Each structure stands twice: as C-alpha cells, then as structure tokens.
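Researcher: I'd like a candidate sequence for this fold, 420 residues long. If you have to choose between options at a position, lean toward the conservative one.
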C-alpha cells in the first residue's frame, strides 16, 4: 500500500512541472522515472564522478585564497550555492554554469531564485502563475521584475544545454570522462519513448539542477557555521582531518572520509539540525482508507508530517536544539549501533521510494567541501559578522530558509581567512 501513495497535487504545484521526477504526482509514473534515474546517482556512479568534482571545489578554494591575500571577507552563503550549481550542472549535462566565476559571488542569481521561492505559497494557490511567468516575453519580464530574468535565463540556458547535449555526436559523449545523466536517460531502455522527448528531459534537467543546488548549498552553509561557532568541535574535527589527510592538496573521496568517526558525526548532526524539508510532505492514498491508531483516514485524504517534529523530538534526540555530534557515536568514539538507530530518524533526505535521488552526490559534496576548506585553511578561517540569527530558519518555503543575506535582514554566512 505504501508504494501506491501519490503526492498531493495541490501542495506540490508550487514545485513546478510535474514532468520532473521530483514533482511527479502519480506513484506509478514516479516509479518508472525513478528506476531510470536511480542508477546514475548510485554510490558507484558518484564515486566515478568524484575526480571531476574536486577541481570545481578547488576553484572555490582559489578564490578564497585570493580573498585572504586581500584581507577580504568571503560570503560563503553565496559561494557554496555557486559551487553546488556548478557541480550539479556538470553532473547532469556536462556543462558548468560558471557561477563560481562571477564577481558578485552569485548574489544577484540567489536574489532572483529566492524571489521565486518566496512566490511559492502564492503559486500553490494560483498554479497558472508559474506558466505565465515562464511564457512571458523576456522584455516584459525585464520591465516587471528584472531580477526574475536570472531565473528565466537559467531555465532557458538549461534547455539550451540539454538540446546541445542531445544533438551531440555519440562518439563525443563516449569520450566524456564521466556519465552524463540527461544523455544516459535519453538512451535508457527503462523509459518509454514518451519519457525521452526533449521537453520531458529538459524539464528533468531543470528539476535536477534546482533540487541539487539549494539543498546542498544550504546544508554546507549551516554545517560550516556550526563547526566554526563551536571551537571544540572545530579543533577536534581539524585534528582528525589532519591525521587522515597529511597533504591538504590530496583530498580523498567521500567513501574514505565518511569512515572518519568524528567527521561522520559532524555531518549527520548537521543534517539533523538542518532538518531538510520543513513543510509537511503530503501524500494521498487514492485507493483505500488508512488506519492510524483509532482514526480512519478516508481514501483521497492528504496526510503529511514535518521532519522538524522528529529532528526536535527530545525523546529521540535529547537536548535537540544543541549541536552535539557525539550523540551519533559510541562511548569510545566509534561508529556503531547508536548511529544505526538514529539514522532511522534522520529525515533530511526523506525516506522510502520518494527519498532524494541525489543523496549520494549530496553526501559526497558535504564531506569533500568541508574537508577541503578545513584542511586548506585550518585554524585561519573564522566567522565574520555572522551570528546564530543569520543562520536561523525563519521561513518555510518547502525547505527552511534564513533571513535574506543582504546585510539588512541578515548577513548569511561570512568568513575571513587570516594570512599565513
């Protein structure tokens, strides 16, 4: 029965086109799309991509080093999102969108994207608005809301890159150093022809990029803040990383990093604190009623629960508002039964057949980025004009979102790296 639960169409209308796997309403249709997409986000597939992800991370490090030389602040809130956009776009269609190279660290891009998320509750009430925004002539969009052009242009760029990819010479694709998700989907025997049209694949590409950058970028932001704002955690994690990674220029893969006990605990606890989706993930059983304790829930009724209630449950996570990586470890500091037990209650990526398809890529980014940042800058990196208020989730736009990091509402995550 559980596998036949559909998503609630009204609620998910704010997520965009239901032709993308994430926004697919029907459980049966989703099963087909997910079975085709899943292998390209497997542990093995992500491990094969890893050598091509580290150079993108190194570009971020190079910009941070330049800021250190100039004694400039580094807006990691924006920088991490630039990084995750470039990583996911490289993975999906072998074309980086180049946000890491922007002089403004992607501030304008994020502002536009944020504006779209802030419209999401209204779009849920009036779903035709999204189609109207996307179909509007560019000059009208520019006249009404210049910021919205950033998002419209991003979608158009992804459509264009998808077309370029699908029109490519197969021999050129074979020579690519890593599998390209959209190309592989277009050739997949697991999908019927109707699922492999340009329009459907372009929507999927847009959905993967959208889902893959903000979630991971936000978790990286919070995780870095939590580490730097807890000096004992910072020192203990840095010591473990220095022992495991003697050469800061040679960062091992995530499969190695996740075996470091304290690093493992920091990542898991950061994911717990981040919560993931704050909204109730509404599902509908269209075929039969469901029983919950003494209540009978009629068929067709939407039900859902926020992961926030689990992450903040003191019976599961004592002192839940505190950042305590040690809660994931055994008394001797090893990874064991405690972690296995708590993993059941970690809902940042969802659970079951609708869980996040990109979980392995997200974990690879979390481990790789933070280990690289800490090993390159060690004790020289410190918070700058950033407090807990700046990282506090105050809005529910599906995921929890902070105050705008514009220096007026909030500051986001800012750091400085002292010169050596």
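Model: Candidate sequence:
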């Amino acid at each position: 029965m559980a596998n036949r639960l559909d998503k609630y169409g009204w609620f998910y209308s704010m997520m965009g086109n239901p032709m993308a796997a994430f926004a697919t309403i029907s459980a049966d249709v989703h099963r087909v799309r997910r079975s085709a997409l899943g292998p390209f986000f497997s542990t093995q597939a992500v491990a094969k991509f890893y050598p091509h992800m580290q150079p993108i991370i190194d570009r971020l490090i190079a910009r941070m080093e330049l800021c250190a030389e100039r004694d400039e602040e580094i807006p990691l809130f924006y920088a991490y999102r630039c990084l995750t956009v470039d990583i996911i776009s490289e993975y999906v269609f072998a074309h980086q969108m180049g946000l890491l190279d922007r002089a403004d660290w992607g501030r304008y891009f994020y502002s536009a994207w944020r504006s779209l998320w802030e419209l999401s509750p209204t779009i849920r009430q009036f779903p035709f608005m999204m189609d109207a925004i996307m179909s509007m002539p560019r000059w009208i969009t520019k006249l009404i809301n210049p910021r919205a052009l950033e998002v419209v242009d991003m979608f158009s760029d992804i459509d264009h890159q998808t077309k370029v990819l699908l029109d490519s010479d197969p021999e050129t694709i074979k020579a690519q150093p890593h599998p390209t998700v959209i190309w592989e989907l277009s050739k997949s025997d697991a999908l019927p022809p109707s699922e492999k049209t340009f329009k459907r694949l372009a929507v999927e590409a847009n959905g993967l990029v959208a889902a893959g950058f903000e979630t991971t970028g936000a978790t990286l932001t919070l995780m870095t803040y939590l580490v730097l704002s807890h000096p004992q955690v910072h020192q203990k994690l840095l010591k473990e990383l220095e022992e495991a990674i003697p050469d800061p220029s040679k960062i091992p893969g995530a499969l190695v990093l996740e075996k470091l006990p304290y690093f493992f605990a920091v990542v898991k606890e950061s994911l717990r604190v981040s919560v993931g989706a704050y909204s109730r993930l509404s599902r509908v059983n269209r075929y039969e009623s469901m029983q919950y304790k003494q209540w009978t829930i009629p068929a067709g009724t939407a039900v859902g629960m926020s992961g926030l209630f689990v992450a903040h449950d003191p019976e599961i996570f004592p002192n839940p508002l505190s950042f305590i990586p040690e809660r994931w470890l055994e008394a001797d500091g090893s990874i064991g039964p405690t972690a296995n037990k708590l993993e059941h209650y970690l809902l940042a990526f969802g659970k079951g057949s609708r869980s996040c398809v990109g979980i392995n890529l997200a974990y690879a980014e979390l481990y790789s980025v933070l280990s690289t940042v800490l090993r390159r800058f060690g004790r020289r990196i410190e918070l700058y004009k950033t407090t807990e208020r700046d990282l506090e989730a105050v809005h529910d736009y599906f995921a929890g979102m902070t105050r705008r990091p514009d220096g007026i509402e909030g500051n986001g995550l800012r750091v400085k790296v002292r010169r050596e």
